[in-house]
């Protein structure tokens, strides 16, 4: 099983050579077929309905801020600077909602208690400040099962519901692939209707060894957002529009990037030629860094096409590739990364190892057409946090709730 820590990192080059080459024509054919199926017109099913609860509310001034952390990825003895980064970001930005976008822990914890402690080190600063939050699962969040901890994603969701008053992770739908799918609507400060929304999607973990009876050698090692999840998003989006009489502008969060994150950077669907990046950067307004490959799922299941068809998603933001921080406008939908937050996970090379530890901030203002007004990154160095290489682990985990 391939893990993120095996990736080759380059701090100087704009991108790295591909460790797992996508198989050109064969993959293109599969992606086209699956994408076309996912985007096929369909009426909302009778069971599709928007989340009726609106636990997050815009401030009296009509504003609200979202903070994204991702890839905190550590054990129960989390690097103390990861916790400091979370605390200082929350205190400086004062968000109304936090999304932790996958890979909260690594596979190190040997017991169920230590799994909970690893999560709690990250969640406690948010809970203590009374901030509503939710997580999406990444590819590493169940790795501790290899140590017989028994802490499945389902058990993690159940535990968070019991332990944290401010956790908004939706109940797991057993009929839907994944364990962190959901819609969260933000209530307007002026009406009893939603002014904005967030889509949470589980991008799942690792791809199976064979697909359709054939080896996936040459494809990426990661899973993807499955067609039933894409259909769930589409049907729930339609039902939300029907209920409230308009499309609710939203942001989408999931861990593993889409193929379109790769396409946007290179300005080409199947190429990886940096010579084309300058034109793509100009066309899509790309800002930020790309220091490693875009580690997509094994194939494209059509989520981007569904989001573009529906027209309610303003941006789709991921983690997974810790040292990529770029974002841009890809044909009407922002695609981007939040920087890797955790000091315990891989980073850049040498003295720059922790230079890109940070978070991403999203600004909302319901007084402005479209509500979503922009995004920016916050790095540890901006907050005066030590970025010297190596680990500085806490000696004891925070007390469990």
UniProtKB/TrEMBL annotation:
Alphabetical keyword list: Membrane, Transmembrane, Transmembrane helix
Question: Which stretches make up the Calcineurin-like phosphoesterase domain?
Answer: 65-322
Q: Does the keyword Ion transport apply?
A: no
Q: Which GO terms describe its cellular component?
A: cytoplasm
Looking up CDD domains in the UniProt record yields: MPP_Dcr2 (cd07383)
GO molecular-function terms, A-Z: hydrolase activity, acting on ester bonds
Gene3D superfamilies, per the entry: 3.60.21.10
Per the UniProt entry, what species is this protein from, by scientific name?
A: Zhihengliuella halotolerans
- Keyword set includes tRNA processing: no
Q: What is this protein called?
A: Calcineurin-like phosphoesterase family protein
């Amino acid at each position: 099983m391939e893990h993120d820590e095996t990736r080759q990192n380059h701090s100087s080059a704009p991108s790295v050579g591909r460790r797992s080459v996508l198989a050109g024509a064969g993959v293109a054919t599969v992606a086209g077929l699956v994408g076309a199926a996912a985007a096929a017109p369909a009426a909302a099913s009778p069971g599709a309905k928007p989340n009726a609860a609106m636990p997050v509310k815009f401030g009296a001034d009509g504003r609200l801020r979202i903070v994204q952390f991702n890839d905190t990825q550590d054990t129960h003895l989390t690097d103390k600077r990861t916790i400091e980064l979370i605390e200082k970001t929350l205190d400086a930005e004062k968000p109304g909602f936090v999304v932790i976008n996958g890979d909260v822990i690594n596979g190190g914890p040997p017991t169920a208690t230590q799994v909970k402690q690893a999560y709690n080190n990250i969640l406690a600063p948010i809970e203590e400040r009374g901030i509503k939050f939710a997580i999406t699962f990444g590819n590493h969040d169940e790795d501790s099962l290899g140590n017989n901890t028994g802490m499945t994603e389902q058990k993690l969701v159940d535990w968070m519901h019991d332990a944290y008053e401010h956790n908004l992770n939706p109940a797991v739908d057993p009929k839907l692939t994944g364990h962190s799918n959901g819609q969260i609507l933000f209530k307007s400060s002026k009406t009893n209707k939603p002014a904005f929304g967030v889509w949470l999607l589980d991008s799942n973990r690792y791809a199976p060894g064979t697909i359709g009876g054939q080896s996936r050698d040459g494809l990426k090692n990661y899973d993807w957002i499955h067609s039933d999840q894409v259909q769930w998003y589409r049907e729930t989006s339609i039902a939300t529009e029907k209920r409230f009489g308009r499309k609710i502008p939203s942001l989408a969060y999931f861990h593993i990037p889409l193929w379109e994150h790769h396409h946007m950077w290179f300005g080409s669907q199947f190429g990886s030629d940096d010579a084309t990046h300058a034109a793509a950067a100009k066309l899509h307004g790309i800002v930020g860094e790309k220091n490693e490959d875009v580690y997509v799922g094994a194939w494209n299941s059509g989520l981007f096409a569904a989001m573009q068809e529906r027209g309610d998603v303003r941006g789709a933001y991921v983690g997974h590739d810790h040292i990529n921080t770029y974002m841009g406008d890809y044909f009407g939908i922002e695609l981007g990364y939040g920087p890797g937050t955790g000091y315990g996970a891989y980073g850049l090379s040498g003295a720059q190892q922790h230079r890109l530890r940070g978070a991403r901030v999203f600004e909302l203002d319901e007084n402005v057409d479209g509500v979503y007004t922009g995004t920016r990154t916050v790095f540890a160095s901006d907050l005066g946090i030590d970025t010297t290489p190596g680990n500085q682990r806490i000696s004891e985990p925070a007390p469990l709730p």
